[in-house]
Design goal:
This protein is of the alpha+beta class and 506 residues long. The protein has a domain at 1-92 and 141-359: Alpha-Beta Plaits, CATH 3.30.70.20. Helices cover 36% and strands 12% of the residues. The protein contains 24 helices and 14 strands. The strands form 6 sheets. The protein has a 4-stranded mixed β-sheet with strand order 12-1-14-13. The chain has a two-stranded antiparallel ribbon with strand order 2-7. Strand 8 and strand 9 (213-215) form a beta hairpin. It is globular and about 70 Å long. Residues 478-503 have low confidence and may be disordered. Bound molecules: iron/sulfur cluster (2 copies). Residues 187-190, 193-195, 213, 230, 232, 234-235, 246, 352 line the site of one iron/sulfur cluster (SF4). One of its GO terms (molecular function) is metal ion binding. Residues 7-36, 178-209, 211-240 form the 4Fe-4S ferredoxin-type domain. Keywords: 4Fe-4S, Electron transport, Iron, Iron-sulfur, Metal-binding, Repeat, Transport.
């Protein structure tokens, strides 16, 4: 057993209201500058929809992630070194600006500085890259937001295309017959990152101390193999610097015990941050299991129980501090993934072993049952209705469990049971323990799960180890900001982009 620790995230899709605050605050923090106009480290997609960049889930086209060979080994879908060498100067598997969007702004000055006259001044759209007027704005990073243009665009969702034969009429895009939910996305900070293995310069790396995947700006040579290699399309090319950039998991904040910007500013309070301990020796085998349906349980099997004394001892022996082990024990992410088993990985079939997981949306079930005149919170009604979900279970399964509907149904049943249990309590009734038992939990666990999912306070949602904070405070005490610089004038602060400590996982 080789114990390693990683900061990970869970997002509860039932609580995302699609406000895009996370995207905007992330952009303000990280990509509000020349060269990254089109870049959204965090974006929020409406599903069904094509996403950003357009149709990113179509790996036949983009060749992202890993595939399993007949001999059971993993190889990059985009090919090995020789193939990469051949595509150095003409890589056909790279999204173009049109696949993301042409970033634009408006000539606002026209509105405020136009001389008085008979005509109303207008603010024409202009490209943020060239400054030239944009004739037609035809696509954007959230163009199909709230199913805008769904009859035209949503059928091109790669997941819809894949399951259309299977679910037929249950996927509809006419008004009032469609379904939708939001999917906020950041880099997955994968355990088996295809971006790292794709980089010919060794610039992409996964930090040993917390698992955050970063792009070293000094080492990057701008080959963009990482952009192709990442199946989630979460590495971007900065056209001003000629380097790759990506979500940093806000490592300067994480290092001092603070949540990521997207988590802290989330209006729906749907994000959870915490430490996961895992057995690094198991990762390769788990990512290469033959049956795609086994990928989700295989990844769960890599995670270690931080309450197990043997795991804690092995973690200490591996140099993981007491604070990190304590944080892993209090991790809301561990609880949602392993204790309550309600969080699932995004597209496990890409075999990168992602570390941002999702609680699938249940709300439409309640609404669907209530619309038939039945009691939408009754456990019996809810369990029965999961089969007839307005969001087809097959659709959720293609996104979260490589198509295994049984695993998604199990999560939805647990969520439905929690609703029924809490409803009984709220009505002053005695909750029926058999409902909790039917989904493998106790009534007390139901109530704990409800507290975490519904009303958890900030310190329960974000458990980021304080060890880093203690070290940072100690450093600040040694070098207070207002102290005279021992070597002369204090240098201007350097803007750090994706540059973390250089300890790497080989
Ligand atoms: S999601 Fe992030 S860590 Fe995973 S392959 Fe893509 S860029 Fe790399
Ligand atoms: S801020 Fe939170 S609720 Fe709003 S879109 Fe982002 S994830 Fe969803």
């Amino acid at each position: 057993m080789r114990v390693m620790a990683q900061v990970a995230m869970v997002m509860n899709l039932d609580k995302c209201i699609g406000c895009h605050t996370c995207s905007v605050t992330c952009k303000q923090a990280w990509t509000n500058r020349q060269g990254t106009e089109y870049v959204w480290f965090n974006n929020v997609e409406t599903l069904p929809g094509q996403g950003y960049p357009r149709r990113w889930e179509d790996q036949e086209k983009w060749r992202g992630g890993w595939e399993r060979t007949r001999s059971g080994r993993l190889r990059l879908r985009a090919g090995g070194r020789l193939k990469k060498l051949g595509g150095l100067f003409a890589n056909p598997h790279l999204p173009e600006l049109g696949d993301y969007y042409q970033p634009w702004t408006y000539e606002y000055k026209n509105l405020t500085e136009a001389p008085a006259g008979d005509d109303l001044p207008t603010a024409r759209p202009v490209s943020q890259i060239t400054g030239e007027p944009v004739d037609t704005i035809a696509w954007g990073p959230n163009w199909d937001d709230n199913l805008g243009g769904a009859p035209a665009h949503a059928p091109k969702d790669p997941v819809v295309e894949k399951i259309r034969d299977e679910v037929g009429e249950r996927i509809r895009f006419e008004f009032e017959q469609s379904f939708m939910f939001y999917l906020p996305r950041i880099c997955e900070h994968c355990l088996n990152p295809a971006c790292v293995s794709s980089c010919p310069s060794g610039a992409m790396y996964k930090r040993e101390e917390d698992g955050i995947v970063l792009a070293d700006q000094d080492a990057c040579r701008g080959w963009r193999m990482c952009v192709t290699g990442c199946p989630y399309k979460k590495v971007y090319f900065n056209h001003a610097t000629g380097k790759a950039e990506k979500c940093t998991f806000c490592f300067p904040r994480i290092e001092v015990g603070m949540p990521t910007v997207c988590s802290e500013t989330c209006v729906g309070r749907m994000r959870y941050l915490g430490v996961m301990l895992y057995d690094a020796d198991k990762v390769g085998e788990a990512a290469a299991v033959e049956d795609e349906h086994d990928l989700y349980p295989a990844q769960v099997d890599c995670f270690l129980d931080p309450h197990d004394p043997a795991v804690a001892a092995a973690a200490r022996a591996a140099g993981i501090t007491h604070e990190w082990i304590e944080a892993a024990r209090n991790s809301p992410v561990y609880d949602l993934i392993a204790t309550y088993q309600v969080a699932l990985p995004l597209h496990p079939e890409y075999r990168t072993m992602p570390m941002v997981w999702y609680v699938p949306p249940l709300s439409p079930v309640v609404e669907a049952v209530a619309a038939t005149g039945s009691d939408g919170e009754d456990a019996g009604n809810l369990f029965g209705a999961i089969d007839a979900l307005r969001i087809p279970v097959e659709y959720l399964a293609e996104i979260l469990t490589a198509g295994d509907t049984y695993a998604v149904e199990a999560v939805l049943r647990r969520m439905a049971a929690m609703r029924a249990h809490m409803r009984a309590i709220n009505l002053g009734e005695r909750p029926d323990e058999s409902v909790a038992r039917a989904v493998g939990l106790t009534g007390t666990e139901m109530e704990d799960m409800f507290r975490l999912l519904a009303i958890a306070k900030i310190e329960d949602r974000f458990v980021v180890p304080s060890a880093a904070r203690a070290e940072a405070d100690a450093l600040a005490d040694t070098h207070p900001l207002d102290a005279p610089c021992p070597v002369g004038d204090r240098p201007e602060p350097r803007v750090m982009l994706n540059l973390g400590p250089t300890r790497r996982v080989s």
